[in-house]
Write a structure and sequence with these properties.
Length: 443
């Protein structure tokens, strides 16, 4: 019972705007990316600031004790596109930063060039936003050239736009571009305005080096990282130059085989159920680590609280060989009377024998206003039916409470994070035995 869903553009825009707010909230120290592999992890101020925002109690005390120790790599923390809160996503520098901040797994979203080479980009056609292509002669290759905003008395009637796809570039042309923060001005009247960035938004780096998929594998191996590639929608008509989406899925897996990466070091991800089923059937040694990114929230008839439908769907997925499901954060939790509690979605998935991953912490900006889409079951936007009161997200530190539920109560396999040090602290700290347990008293 898989159904294909593409993440809505509106959701991505909201997430972006929220991320900008997060950047404005903290201009913390940037890690040194030139240190040798195996050096002590970078200690940035963000985790300590969040812990200080918690109410005095057991969780704060445990995390404060962990802050006193050296930061450690976190086995359940995935660098989502690297560390894009302060680095251009899917760049070499963003990945290096994520490794320095405690991630143990790094994500390369995968699309392809005109030559069919796989490259790291979140979207097949986002180059106008996430690279400098509009400032280069390669702007002539864009499927839709830059179009200025239409303004009436200072009000944006039609936002500025463009559409530039990796599949329209050779691999060398793609690699000649520079990665940039996914920040554009919808009211722009020219390219310079469109790509201008707000100087009040702190950044550890304005431009970064783009990578092919094979480049990312080599880098991640050197860093000792596990790998979480996500095959993205093609963005162009298929088949593309004789290759189907399944062919690109096979090519992705083959890249890991040729690089000698152990299957247990790779998570194969996709929103597309057809790709998931293809990998389960053909991925052989990699098939046991296939992750279906559950995007059914975009379907009009989907209810993530419908227990009968959920249970039947999860059992069907398990019967087809799926082991891992990754919904957004809000589908795994509910607002209880006194705090965050596990959702029926999480319970039913695990009862069916499925393991869970989730996305994405540190992507919603300051949480004083509720955190937006990623926190909708905790901020009143999507409450339990008939629920009139309960927990509400109200501060950045509350994501540590969410992480505690994810790691300790639900027992997720991994959580994606835009700034891995935050997640890594909770991950490593809460993986330790609780004081007073039998494990804690062993000699």
């Amino acid at each position: 019972m898989f159904r294909a869903v593409i993440c809505p553009a509106a959701i991505q825009v909201l997430a972006l705007l929220a991320a900008l707010g997060a950047a404005a909230a903290w201009a913390g120290n940037c890690p040194d990316l030139d240190v040798p592999v195996g050096s002590p992890l970078h200690r940035d101020p963000r985790p300590a600031e969040l812990v200080a925002g918690l109410e005095v109690g057991p969780l704060r005390e445990r995390l404060e004790a962990c802050l006193a120790a050296d930061p450690m790599p976190a086995t359940r923390t995935i660098g989502h596109r690297g560390a894009p809160l302060y680095y251009p996503e899917h760049t070499r520098e963003s990945y290096l930063a994520a490794a320095r901040l405690g991630a143990s797994t790094l994500e390369c979203d995968v699309t392809f060039t005109a030559e069919g080479d796989l490259v790291c980009r979140h979207d097949a056609c986002d180059l106008h936003r996430t690279t400098n292509i509009l400032e280069t002669p390669l702007a002539s290759t864009c499927a839709e050239p830059f179009r200025p905003a239409l303004l009436e008395e200072g009000v944006v009637i039609r936002p500025a736009s463009a559409r530039c796809c990796a599949a329209q570039l050779t691999t060398s042309e793609f690699l000649s571009l520079e990665g940039r923060h996914d920040r554009v001005n919808p009211a722009a009247e020219n390219v310079a305005q469109y790509l201008s960035t707000d100087p009040s938004l702190p950044s550890c780096l304005d431009r970064g080096k783009l990578l092919t998929h094979r480049d990312s594998i080599a880098l991640f191996k050197d860093l000792g990282m596990a790998m979480a590639p996500e095959l993205k929608g093609p963005g162009v008509s298929m088949p593309f130059r004789g290759k189907s989406e399944a062919d690109f899925a096979d090519q992705l897996v083959q890249d890991y085989r040729e690089a000698g990466v152990a299957p247990e070091r790779v998570w194969l991800q996709s929103f597309d159920p057809n790709i998931i089923q293809h990998w389960l059937a053909t991925g052989a040694e990699f098939g046991g680590r296939v992750v279906w990114l559950d995007g059914r929230y975009a379907l009009d008839d989907f209810d993530h609280r419908d227990e009968e439908a959920l249970g039947a769907g999860f059992r069907s997925m398990k019967q087809q060989g799926l082991q891992f499901v990754a919904p957004p954060l809000w589908m795994l939790v509910e607002a209880g009377v006194d705090g965050i509690v596990t959702s029926r979605y999480a319970v039913l998935a695990q009862e069916a024998g499925l393991s869970l991953l989730s996305w994405t912490l540190e992507r919603s900006g300051p949480l004083e206003t509720g955190g937006g889409w990623y926190y909708q079951t905790l901020n009143g936007a999507n409450p339990l039916p008939a629920s009139r009161s309960g927990f509400r997200i109200r501060r950045d530190a509350d994501q540590l409470m969410l992480a505690q539920v994810l790691f300790e109560e639900i027992g997720v396999h991994a959580v994606f994070s835009d700034w891995p040090s935050t997640t890594a602290l909770t991950d490593t700290c809460l993986a330790a035995p609780l004081a007073g347990t039998q494990a804690d008293t062993k000699p």
